[in-house]
Amino acid sequence: MTAGVGDLGDPPAGVLAEAAAAFGLLASSARLHIVWVLAQGECDVSGLAERVGGALPAVSQHLTKLKLAGLVRSRREGRRQVYFVDDPDVVTVVRLMVGQLTDRAAHAPVRHISDVGA
To answer: Rounded to two decimals, what is the model's pTM?
Structure first.
């Protein structure tokens, strides 16, 4: 029997391994930023590099890893390769996590340097 999200049973080991691998890829702030941008809409590698503030070769390598994991897809438009996230569940997870942390940071008390040692 396979366990769904609402079930109390444990998911199969293969599913946990696949999820851990996907989360591992998203553990890189650069790759997470790329997926965040692509969750807003499709973009080519030059646009992504500009938006995330990364070097073109580095962004290209991140995209290759994300594509191999199935988190990002691409299609050719003339000479350009356009990247996108077409899995709504990936978009939901990324938006939920980043949104929660953004809200938490916005409501956190302001810490001063003098508070660090306290």
So the answer is: 0.77
